[in-house]
Structure formats: structure tokens, C-alpha cells
């Protein structure tokens, strides 16, 4: 139930009881695995059950999610430590709700980017128990990375008051992280030879009073051009964008009143981090020029891959909403959610080893639960970007995600992030780990499965215009061709894995037996010749395989079982409910799969369409997939053209 931690002492610390009893043995032991457990404290003041494994916590092992440990606490000790500024005792005091008796509480630890829970173990319904939320992050070692802003005058660094001061504080730290990444991370090295965008926003002045104008890249005489991108949700049609009629005036200067707040906040961040150039789609593409759109869409992979970083707006739902007010809420706003920090120190070296965060309102929100993950176009923008700077709501520290790690501006190291935030560098590392000196199978299988994961995640997102489905992943396709070599790309499928991919089944089992499925030809005609992987005008796939015609009768069921020459078959239809006009289907046998050493024939179901090719052959459309009760179909091979 909701409670609020509404008093902040001058200096937030962690008392000896919390550090030694609650945190040392569970979280900090990973810093020094040889450190002994200190569970010898009395049962009045120490733990009486131990299940938390810090290595699993910081290593983000899925099996660790939900692990719980119970503690007992004396109320006098709790109140004294809370009054002296112990951030965790303050949390416990509020969870306790003012009761004055000794009590037990439990800690349930979640994945590192989610909020772990503190619960009063007093009797009562689960729905009425008081719960607080906290997170623990490992801290980047100052010996590995010189955080001038983090290691000197920490209290001043953390107590910056105004939004501008707090942005400046975080921006300087993020710039240090970015520079360290580009200089020292082998997996994040800048790529050369990439196409530059045609135009950029030149940003100057201060974050309070920025000056912005559009500039043609051909007119920039700086080499190399270091620019950042902005990834955000449009939300609705933007009233002011670059058009043919506005282009000349925007090259002179853009009135701040014409820039939507989310983009204006992106400009403020770029200036604060010390960058002069920013790429924003609404202004750097002439929106009413078809040729300009085609040219820039063809460069998407290069634009995001070649950027120093991409500012990723995790809170704003629209271009007009802005995100800095959510990232740095005013202290006097009653509805604000604050995160308060205290350092956890390694008991041996006394160096900062981790950061403890407590939420003031104790609400259970995932920092990666963001509207930007719901939009189709933003999917490739994160995947293509070598570095992403994420700005969260509720005062949560911004963080840098690169191919090496994800780290907050205060040094808190997030040991993992959701799959939707991976970069191409991370995908390459995942594929590389599957390489074997004896066989190429593991590497090829890893590529195929990563592509299926990408398509699955992308398919969950929404697009304002259905026609954008293929254009919105063109950049991914371009990079995939360069990095992974999976053959010819055919509208979402790759020639080397086409037979298995046509099934679109998860999980995908091993194929076995003789492959009787043959691709005769595939023709994909794009809407624009210069965008071969973009919007599709038409497509035809001609295959040759064993097939059998099945009469469905009047069945309206989405799943149909019937008998064929080789035995029983179960058909799952793609659409729900099943199309009423589909009375019979051809079952195209692709291969046998082997789930748990029990082989089954599998394939796709197609139905004839009224349209015919100019040369006269019948055309078919996919309507579902089928699984045989045993081995696959038998009989002669036939040719089918699928549209």
C-alpha cells in the first residue's frame, strides 16, 4: 500500500547495522567473494534466514528473481539510526507505519533494473501489507574510470538543486562515460566509412538559452563530424517540421517557439554534454519531399550507427510533452517521485562498491517500462546505436548503454538491460560465443535465432501507418547483411533459413530427415527502387514440395484436425476467427522437426486466391501451419506460387 518518505536528513548514509546485516553479505560479497558471512549477530538484531546470492544478483541470473531473506529488527535501534540519516532505516521506519514494537521484515530481490521489495512481515492480507522499494547497483571503480564529477565533492554533486544544475551534473558524467567508451571499449569502437546524414541541427548557446539552426553537412568543414541522434515518440503530427517552404529560413535559424518540447529538451542535453550537432528526423529530413525522404531513409543504418550516441527518451509519450521535467522533478511537487542515494562501501578497502537507491513513494515501476518501447520506428534506433543515453522519469539517474555495459551517471552499474535495448555489438558478441572450431552450425543457428527474436519483438510494436512496417526496419536489414551474411533478404526472411522461417513457430525445434522443400524463385518488387528493403509493391514465392489437398467443410474452428495419407494432421490458422471463405487448403510439407526425440512433419497451409498470374498459374496465400501426428506427408512434389 502507498506510503511516502517525506523527510530528508541533511546527509544520507547507511548505518552499520544495515550495511553489515542487510547488505554486506548479500550484495557486497560479490566485490570480495572471500569475505565471510556475518550472520553471527544475535537473532534480535540479525538475520535468521539466508537465501540471497549476491553473485546471482549482480550477474542477473533469471533463477535469482524473487529470492527472499528475512530479518528481525529492534525498533529502538531502527528509530535511532533513521534519525541519524540511515536511508534504509528510514525506509523501514515508513514501512513499519509508526508502530513501536520490534518486528521482522523480508527483502525480495528482483532483477537489477527493477525495484526490490521490503515488506513488513506482520500478519495481514498481502494486499494491505506495507511495501517499500529499493535498488542496489555496483559502482564503477574510480581506478578504472576517473569520474572527476563523481569522486570529488560527492555531496555537492548529488545535492545540485536546480534542474539546470542537475542536468549539467549528469551531462558531464555522461560525457566522461562516452569518451571512455569510445577510447577504451573494443566492442564499441567507432565505425568508419558510414554515410553521413544530409542535414544536422547546429546547437549552441546554453541549455537555458539555446540557439538552433539547420545546417547542410556538406557545408561543415570539421572532420570527423561528431553528432548525436534523438530517439523519441512523435505521438501526433508535429505542427512545425522542416518542409520545402521552411528550409531556407531554418538554415538561418529556428525560433525556439517552433520546436516541440521533447526535441527542445534533446537540444538542451546535447549542449550540456558538449556536442554541437544533433540529428532529429522531424527537422533533418524535408518532410514534404519524397526524394529527400527516400535518400535519408536509405541512410538510417549509417545515421544511427555513426552517431556518437543516441539520446533515448524513456518518458515522453509525444514530441510536445518534454522529458527533462520528468527526469528532474521539482522538489516541491507533491506528485514527484524521488530517488535517494547512499553509498555502500567495501569493508576491506572502504572504496565505494555499490549504490543504494530508495524510492520516496515506494511505487513499483520498472525503469524500462517506457512508451518508447511500444513504437515501431524506435526499435531500430536503439539496436543500430552504438551508445544510447537514456533519460528516465521520476528523478531516476540517466544511464549510458553501450555494447560493454549499462551505467548510470552516478556510477551505478546496471549489469543487464532488457532485450529491446541490445545493440548490434552485443548481438555480434552473442553470435561469436557460439563459434566452434569443429562446426559452423552453432554460429549459424545463433544468427537465425537472433533474427527471429528481433522480428518477434518488432512485431509487438505499433506503427501509425501500416505501410511503414518494412521501412521501419530497413536499417536493421542493412546492418544484418553486412555483419551476419544470411543470404538474400526477402521481405522479412533470409534465403539461408527460409524453409524453417516460413513456419514462424516458437520454439523452433531441430529439422531432421530429407529436405523435400525447394525454393524455385522469389521476387520482391519494392515501391521505391532506391529502397529495395522498404515498402513492398508485390512479392511472389514459388516453391516445390510434397503437398496434399484437405477439405475443411463447414468448420469454423481456429484449430482443425483431419486425416491425410500419412495419418492425422492438426492445422492452426493464422487469423481468428478462421476466414469463412476458406473451404479447402493445400498442406505444403516442409520438413520434420524433432521435439524431444519425437519427430513430426510440419509445413504451411495455403489457400487458392481468385487472382491469377499473367502467365496463368494459380496463386496461393498462406492461411496457417500444420503439424502431422507422425512423419511428414507422402506423394509427388508439386509447384506453388505464394503471394
UniProtKB/TrEMBL annotation:
Pfam families xrefs: HET
Domain of life: Eukaryota
Residue intervals of the Heterokaryon incompatibility domain: 227-381
InterPro entries linked: HET
Name of the protein: Heterokaryon incompatibility protein-domain-containing protein
Organism of this sequence: Aspergillus taichungensis
Upper classification of the organism: Eukaryota, Fungi, Dikarya, Ascomycota, Pezizomycotina
Amino acid at each position: 500500500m502507498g506510503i511516502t518518505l517525506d523527510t530528508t536528513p541533511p546527509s544520507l548514509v547507511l548505518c552499520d547495522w544495515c550495511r553489515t546485516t542487510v547488505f554486506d553479505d548479500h550484495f557486497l560479497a560479490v566485490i570480495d567473494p572471500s569475505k565471510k558471512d556475518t550472520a553471527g549477530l544475535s537473532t534480535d538484531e540479525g538475520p535468521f534466514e539466508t537465501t540471497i546470492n549476491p553473485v546471482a544478483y549482480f550477474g542477473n541470473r533469471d533463477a535469482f528473481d524473487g529470492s527472499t531473506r528475512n530479518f528481525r529488527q529492534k525498533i529502538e535501534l531502527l528509530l535511532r539510526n533513521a534519525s541519524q540519516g540511515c536511508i534504509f532505516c528510514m525506509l523501514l521506519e515508513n514501512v513499519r507505519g509508526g508502530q513501536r514494537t520490534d518486528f521482522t521484515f523480508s527483502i525480495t530481490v528482483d532483477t537489477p533494473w527493477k525495484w526490490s521489495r521490503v515488506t513488513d512481515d506482520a500478519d495481514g492480507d498481502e494486499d494491505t501489507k506495507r511495501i517499500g522499494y529499493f535498488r542496489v547497483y555496483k559502482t564503477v571503480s574510480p581506478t578504472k574510470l576517473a569520474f572527476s564529477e563523481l569522486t570529488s565533492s560527492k555531496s555537492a554533486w548529488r545535492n545540485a538543486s536546480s534542474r539546470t544544475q542537475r542536468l549539467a551534473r549528469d551531462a558531464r558524467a555522461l560525457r566522461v562515460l562516452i569518451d571512455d567508451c569510445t577510447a577504451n571499449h573494443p566492442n564499441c569502437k567507432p565505425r568508419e566509412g558510414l554515410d553521413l546524414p544530409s542535414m544536422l541541427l547546429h546547437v549552441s548557446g546554453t541549455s537555458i538559452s539555446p540557439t538552433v539552426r539547420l545546417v547542410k553537412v556538406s557545408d561543415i568543414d570539421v572532420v570527423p563530424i561528431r553528432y548525436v541522434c534523438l530517439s523519441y515518440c512523435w505521438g501526433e503530427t508535429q505542427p512545425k517540421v522542416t518542409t520545402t517552404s521552411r528550409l531556407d529560413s531554418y538554415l538561418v535559424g529556428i525560433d525556439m517557439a517552433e520546436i516541440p518540447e521533447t526535441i527542445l529538451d534533446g537540444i538542451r542535453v546535447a549542449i550540456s554534454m558538449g556536442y554541437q550537432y544533433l540529428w532529429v528526423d522531424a527537422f533533418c529530413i524535408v518532410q514534404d519531399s519524397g526524394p529527400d525522404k527516400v535518400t535519408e531513409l536509405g541512410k538510417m543504418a549509417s545515421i544511427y550507427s555513426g552517431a556518437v550516441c543516441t539520446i533515448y527518451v524513456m518518458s515522453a509519450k509525444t514530441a510536445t510533452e518534454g522529458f527533462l521535467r520528468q527526469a528532474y522533478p521539482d522538489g516541491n511537487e507533491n506528485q514527484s517521485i524521488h530517488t535517494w542515494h547512499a553509498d555502500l562501501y567495501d569493508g576491506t578497502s572502504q572504496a565505494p562498491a555499490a549504490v543504494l537507491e530508495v524510492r520516496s513513494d515506494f511505487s513499483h515501476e520498472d525503469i524500462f517500462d517506457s512508451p518508447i518501447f511500444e513504437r515501431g520506428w524506435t526499435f531500430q534506433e536503439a539496436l543500430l546505436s552504438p551508445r544510447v543515453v537514456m533519460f528516465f522519469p521520476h528523478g531516476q539517474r540517466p544511464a549510458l548503454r553501450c555494447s560493454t555495459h549499462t551505467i548510470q551517471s552516478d556510477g551505478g552499474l546496471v549489469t543487464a538491460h532488457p532485450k529491446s535495448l541490445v545493440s548490434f555489438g552485443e548481438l555480434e558478441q552473442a553470435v561469436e560465443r557460439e563459434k566452434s572450431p569443429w562446426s559452423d552450425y552453432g554460429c549459424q543457428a545463433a544468427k537465425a535465432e537472433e533474427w527471429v527474436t528481433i522480428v518477434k519483438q518488432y512485431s509487438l510494436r505499433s506503427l501509425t501507418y501500416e505501410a511503414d512496417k518494412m521501412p521501419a526496419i530497413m536499417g536493421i536489414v542493412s546492418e544484418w547483411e553486412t555483419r551476419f551474411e544470411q543470404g538474400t533478404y526477402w521481405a522479412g526472411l533470409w534465403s539461408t533459413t527460409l524453409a524453417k522461417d516460413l513456419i514462424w513457430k516458437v520454439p523452433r525445434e531441430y529439422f531432421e530427415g530429407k529436405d523435400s522443400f525447394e525454393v524455385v524463385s522469389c521476387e520482391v518488387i519494392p515501391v521505391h527502387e532506391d529502397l529495395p528493403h522498404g515498402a513492398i509493391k508485390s512479392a511472389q514465392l514459388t516453391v516445390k514440395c510434397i503437398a496434399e489437398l484437405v477439405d475443411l467443410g463447414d468448420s469454423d474452428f481456429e484449430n482443425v484436425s483431419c486425416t491425410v495419407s500419412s495419418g492425422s494432421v492438426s492445422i492452426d490458422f493464422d487469423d481468428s476467427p478462421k476466414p469463412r471463405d476458406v473451404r479447402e487448403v493445400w498442406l505444403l510439407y516442409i520438413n520434420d522437426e524433432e521435439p524431444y526425440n519425437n519427430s513430426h512433419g510440419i509445413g504451411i497451409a495455403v489457400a487458392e486466391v481468385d487472382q491469377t498470374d499473367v502467365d496463368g498459374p494459380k496463386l496461393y496465400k498462406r492461411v496457417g501451419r500444420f503439424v502431422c501426428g507422425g512423419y511428414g506427408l507422402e506423394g509427388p512434389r508439386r509447384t506453388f506460387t505464394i503471394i
